[in-house]
Amino acid sequence: MGEGDLSLNFDGGTTMSEYPAKLNTGYYRVRTDWNDDASQLGAYKLLANAKAKCDENPGSYVFAEDGTVIYPADEPTTREENAEEKPVTDFPEENTSEEDSAVEGEQPSEGTPAEEFPSAEPLPDAIAYGKLKTLMNIRKAPSLDAEVVAVYAKNCIVDVLEHCGDWLKIKCPEAEDGVAYVLNAEDAYAFVGREVYTVAPGDNLWRISERKLGSGVHYTEIRALNGLTSNCILIGMKLLLPDQESNLHYLARRNPGFFLLEESSMAYTNSPLVDYTNLSPNHSGLRTHSIDRITPHCVVGQLSAESICGCFTSTSRQASCNYGIGKDGRVSLCVEEKNRSWCSSSAANDQRAITIECASDLTHPYAMNSAVYTSLIELCTDICKRNGKAKTALAGGQE
Predict the structure, then answer these.
(1) Which one, 22, 55, 95, 181, has the greatest CB density within 10 A?
(2) Which of 137-141, 350-354, 372-376 has the lowest mean pLDDT?
(3) Which letter does DSSP use for residue 141 in this model?
(4) Residue 266: is its pLDDT beyond 80?
């Protein structure tokens, strides 16, 4: 076997029929490599569900808890040959043998209770879609004490039926009633969006944003919603798409500190004092806290308004601000007020602050000239008026 070849342990001593249709303990795990936890596509109590997941992902295998490959066999069977194996019912195996099962259209045999078999009902439509940030337990009820019905891999897309506090109610084919719950306290475990888009040949984030969101400038929101660290995407990748209006109301519902200034697209506005605009891609998308702070910062250089924006046009810089004030007092817009910039050393501060980079001397005490000071006072006044702040208080700090 050459370097890089995959070693699989096929057990010749145990047949498929000796593995139970439903496990009471442990899971059937679907992976491409037993020794690589990250390759896991799912973990199932029902063997039939594990095999179905394996069939959907060529190159994957169903493993027993000891790492033995139990499906597919050395000579894989067809779907028709596998059709006889069905998910188990709630009855014990000894009460559901082929001999005891009533054939449709015939009367139950003597001593067999008549059962009702209602027709399948459709699940409700998804209200949103989630992409898991890590390997997650999927539970029968919204509680950490509830039974785990499946384990879903990182980046798995789930249909969200309802927001239940810190939990998402999702469609789950492994659950008996087709629904289950995944923890998402403080949005820590799943990205949530309104739509799922599959990347096609010729796509890039800008084009997807133009076609699906109306403008290419929203590509950064797609990046943030999918946890991407660059603009690189792959054909076949599934991306969540944001809905700006619904996201604002979702944030307002989930974060008491977040407010909407008006029930319209004027939820946030930018300053009319802006002389130059060059929007930076370096931001985290919509804020999760209301604006209640202003953070001026010395840029450490006598730069123009245009040059301050120019500092943040490259994604490799990993920094930005909402506004810049050049050495002549002219104001530039780098990141819109609705979005969190990457300016101060505190992410929590940037979520709630309008950040302003100001032209200053290169050496301590990094003095700003009178034109910069005058524009800074005017800009702070305008920010307070537009955001309904009647007074300000100096919080201090060296930033």
Answers:
(1) 181
(2) 350-354
(3) S
(4) no
- The DSSP output letter for 22 is B
**Using alpha carbons only, what angle is made at residue 174 by residues 168 and 179, rounded to the nearest 5 degrees?**
35
Q: d(Cα 48, Cα 86) in Å, to the nearest integer?
A: 6
Check pLDDT > 50 for residue 1.
no
262-269 contact pairs (CB < 8 A, 24+) = 267/338, 268/336, 268/337, 268/338, 269/337, 269/386
- Whether pLDDT at 233 is above 50: yes
Would the pLDDT of 90 be above 80? no
Please tell me the total number of residues recorded for the chain in this structure.
Answer: 399
Strands of the sheet with 276-277, listed across from one edge = 276-277, 331-333, 323-325, 353-358, 293-298
Find, among 176, 156, 150, 162, the residue nearest to 125 by Cα. Answer: 162
3-class DSSP state for residue 7? coil
Q: What gap in Å lies between CA 46 and CA 22, rounded to an integer?
A: 5
Give phi and psi for 77, each to the nearest 5.
-90, 165
pTM score, two decimals?
Answer: 0.39
Neighbour-count burial of 160, counting CB atoms closer than 10 A to its CB (0-12 exposed, 13-18 middle, 19+ buried): buried
Phi and psi (nearest 5°) for 44? -135, 145
b (16+ CB within 10 A) / e for 111-146: eeeeeeeeeeeeeeebebbbbbeeebbbbbebeeee
Is residue 47 pLDDT above 90, yes or no?
no
Q: Is the per-residue pLDDT at 308 higher than 50?
A: yes
